[in-house]
Write a structure and sequence with these properties.
five-stranded parallel beta sheet; signal; alpha/beta; 2 domains; globular; two-stranded antiparallel ribbon; Rhodanese-like domain protein; Oxidized Rhodanese, domain 1; 6 helices; about 35% helix
Length: about 190
């Protein structure tokens, strides 16, 4: 009898879980997606972190900026980061970066790239920009926590607005969440 009560309690809890999940928007302008397929209604909704701010981001963060996946990320690490001509930029806050990141990443919080930051020119200088000349600037891959992190796409747009060439920028939309979900190694920052 005890086992039956436990199974009943677990079943009730499992059925209640969707009701407990927080309903969220898919994007700022869409709360659900609905269509009809072969006469059957299909509805896609999203639960979890509130949107905004955590809305799904488009695949392209800015005009001319390539969006890359994990294999391209590994190539970038090998060809650019290890070669000293590129940086893998984690735009999350230092607390998140300190808890774990993609190996080889440096932390440049998105807020530091915004036009209002009085030290942005110093930061661009550290990225290889000399008096508005971007020819020696590092190639960058920008990433955040995941596909619903608006800060990563915003950081790309801030760099473009500062004059950073799109050809020197790449966007890893999947971010740390996709990296971890695929079982790839992470590193603790020092």
């Amino acid at each position: 009898m005890y086992q039956g009560l436990v199974l009943t309690a677990v079943s009730v809890a499992m059925l209640a879980m969707p009701a407990l999940a927080q309903q969220s928007r898919i994007s700022e302008d869409r709360d659900r997606f609905q269509m009809s397929v072969n006469g059957a209604s299909v509805s896609i909704t999203r639960s979890g972190v509130a949107c905004p701010p955590a809305c799904l981001q488009p695949m392209q963060a800015g005009p001319g900026v390539s969006t890359i996946g994990e294999l391209e990320m590994l190539d970038f690490l090998e060809l650019f980061v290890a070669g000293g001509s590129g940086l893998l930029v984690d735009i999350r806050l230092p607390e998140g970066f300190g808890a774990g990141t993609i190996p080889g990443a440096v932390n440049v919080p998105a807020a530091t790239l915004r036009p209002g930051n009085p030290y942005r020119d110093d930061l661009l200088n550290a990225l290889g920009v000399r008096s508005g000349d971007f020819s020696s600037a590092f190639d960058l891959v920008i990433f955040g926590s995941g596909a619903d992190d608006p800060e990563a796409a915003e950081a790309v747009r801030s760099l473009l607005d500062a004059g950073y060439p799109a050809s020197k920028l790449k966007y890893y939309r999947g971010g740390l969440n996709a990296w971890v979900a695929l079982g790839l190694s992470t590193a603790l920052s020092r």
